[in-house]
């Protein structure tokens, strides 16, 4: 990988530290981050004798010496390691401090503990500044080992556990790495809309955005409270208008005073306005508005059908076709009734688009980006990765190192199918049939990356029938210039393609897919006016975290998972 794609090694940063420096306070708080104490190369020993204020949540606490003092393991989320805190009974009521989950802020002096102990430094408390107490009988996250499945029922508290906190820091690091990579390579970050009127995938599994239902419910309540006018009410109002009109005529004929005529006209206008309101109100009907037997979306908030986006790609292409290199990074949504460990209804996508670039450039960018993220975690997040290796997947660090340092294999879809067919002939059994034209299943992808090549694989030139309309048709008229980056552990990590820049071809593809042309007219304009060769890809951000950490279920690597049947908080 190029020099510019690598993050500065953590060892260089640590070497630059003066171990005798006073520990710094957090810039926006009166405390010291626990990471700035225990995260030093000497484990904090060089800070012995310094007075600090620390705050955090008690991971474990126990009274010792017949209740004369207590040990607390304190963590503030800045790193996986805890700070050992010792509190004497004369300083505070120990029973209020030792329960798991208690939040404490303490002032004290850092001391080197006796030889033979695991800790390199501990905090001897002189003053307890504040305590957020916990009733151990009611606290749902005790210090016992909890399953990730159990924690999904306590989303608001699960970030206090070692695993979820480590995943949050890893997710943060990968997001930072994403922005760093694209900014270093002169990409513009573009915010694409969450509400869209086009279906990027053509899959139709989209969440609809509408106010018709709530407006209909509101109207029903209103009509019950105040029923619409009857035909007799409207006829009576018409009669009043007729009478008021006749009165005006008579006054004019009698050449009455201007003030009398003006007053009479005002009465007539008032009667007309009342009739108009009654006629409008009589048209109100309970239920969702319809026209010609279909839902009338012109009455909806956006005056047309709208959805939550499944991808920002189509919109970000408008900027690629103007400012060249762009990327979007945000939430996407899919209304898929899936309960697998690999699917969410709300998930995050990283989607770059590169103008004046083809499929080869796309593959090159995707490989460099994945390697950059792997290096970033190894350099900036090694302590959390070591926790994941110890607790969940002992091979996760080696996997990151392998991907960061190994050239990705590149094979065509046809070659991939041939390799899978050879494996079947050799006795390998797959649940999904292998033949040209299928969409490769996860088991096929993992066979290629974990068994056949034992490294990342980029498969390109897929059959056009299994790919989206916007992918560039190859000269063979059977395949499109699409590519997927496959990695061990998760299979497909990235899906991308060279986009179809030829107006006639893409118009034909949209029709072939049975999609209406009207919603894509703006997209076709990019081909009508100043079309340009361009490409891009999408990386499922949660899949990258699964790959990096070895966690099995995608619901555990996003802070607030949404999936069929669940949308807590």
Automatic annotation (TrEMBL):
It is an enzyme of class 6 (ligase). Residues 326-559 form the Aminoacyl-transfer RNA synthetases class-II family profile domain. Keywords: Aminoacyl-tRNA synthetase, ATP-binding, Ligase, Nucleotide-binding, Protein biosynthesis. Its EC number is 6.1.1.22. CDD domains: AsxRS_core, EcAsnRS_like_N. The keyword Cell membrane does not apply. The keyword Nucleotide-binding applies. Residues 233-289 form the WHEP-TRS domain. It comes from the Eukaryota. Belongs to the class-II aminoacyl-tRNA synthetase family. This is asparagine--tRNA ligase. It comes from Hibiscus sabdariffa. The lineage of its organism: Eukaryota, Viridiplantae, Streptophyta, Embryophyta, Tracheophyta.
């Amino acid at each position: 990988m190029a020099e510019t794609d690598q993050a500065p090694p953590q060892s260089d940063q640590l070497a630059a530290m003066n171990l005798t420096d006073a520990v710094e306070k957090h810039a926006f708080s009166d405390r010291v981050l626990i990471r700035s104490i225990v995260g030093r190369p000497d484990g904090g020993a060089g800070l012995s004798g310094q007075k600090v204020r620390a705050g955090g949540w008690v991971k474990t606490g126990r009274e010792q010496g017949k209740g004369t003092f207590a040990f607390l393991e304190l963590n503030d989320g800045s790193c996986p390691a805890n700070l050992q805190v010792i509190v004497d009974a004369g300083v505070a009521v120990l029973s209020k401090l030792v329960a798991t989950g208690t939040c404490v802020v303490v002032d004290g002096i850092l001391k080197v503990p006796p030889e033979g102990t695991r800790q390199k430094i501990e905090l001897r408390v002189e003053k307890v500044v504040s305590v957020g107490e916990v009733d151990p009988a009611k606290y749902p996250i005790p210090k016992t080992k909890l399953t990730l499945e159990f924690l999904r029922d306590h989303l608001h508290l699960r970030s206090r556990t070692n695993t979820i906190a480590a995943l949050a820091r890893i997710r943060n690091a990968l997001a930072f790495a994403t922005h760093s990579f694209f900014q270093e390579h002169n990409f513009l970050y573009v915010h694409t809309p969450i509400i869209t009127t086009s279906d990027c995938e053509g899959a139709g599994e989209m969440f609809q955005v509408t106010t018709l239902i709530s407006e209909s419910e509101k109207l029903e309540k209103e009509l019950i409270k105040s029923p619409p006018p009857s035909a007799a009410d409207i006829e009576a109002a018409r009669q009043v208008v007729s009478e008021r009109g006749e009165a005006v005529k008579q006054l004019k004929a009698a050449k009455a005073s201007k003030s009398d005529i003006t007053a009479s006209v005002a009465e007539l206008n008032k009667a007309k306005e009342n009739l108009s309101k009654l006629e409008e109100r009589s048209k109100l009907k309970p239920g969702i508005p319809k026209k010609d037997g279909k839902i009338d979306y012109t009455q909806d908030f956006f005056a047309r059908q709208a959805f939550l986006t499944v991808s920002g790609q189509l919109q970000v292409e408008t900027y690629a076709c103007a400012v060249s290199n762009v990327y979007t990074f945000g939430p996407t949504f899919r209304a898929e009734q899936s309960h697998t460990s690999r699917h969410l209804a709300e998930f995050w996508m990283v989607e770059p688009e590169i103008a004046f670039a083809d499929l080869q450039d796309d593959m090159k960018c995707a490989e460099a980006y994945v390697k950059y993220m792997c290096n970033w975690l190894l350099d900036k997040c090694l302590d959390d990765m070591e926790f994941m290796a110890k607790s969940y997947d002992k091979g996760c660090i080696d996997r990151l190192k392998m991907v960061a340092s190994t050239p990705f294999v590149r094979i065509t879809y046809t070659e991939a199918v041939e390799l899978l067919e050879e494996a079947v002939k050799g006795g390998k059994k797959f649940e999904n049939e292998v033949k040209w034209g299928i969409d490769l299943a996860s088991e096929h992808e993992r066979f290629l990356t974990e068994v056949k090549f034992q490294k990342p694989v980029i498969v390109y030139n897929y059959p056009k029938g299994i790919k989206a309309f916007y992918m560039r048709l190859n000269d063979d008229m059977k395949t499109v210039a699409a590519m997927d980056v496959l990695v061990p552990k998760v299979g497909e990590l990235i899906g991308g393609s060279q986009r179809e820049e030829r107006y006639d071809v893409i118009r034909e593809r949209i029709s072939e897919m049975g999609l209406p042309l009207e919603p894509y007219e703006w997209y076709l304009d990019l081909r009508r006016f100043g079309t340009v060769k361009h490409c891009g890809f999408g990386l499922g951000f949660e899949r990258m975290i699964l790959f990096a950490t070895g966690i099995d279920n995608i619901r555990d690597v996003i802070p607030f998972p949404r999936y069929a049947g669940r949308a807590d908080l």
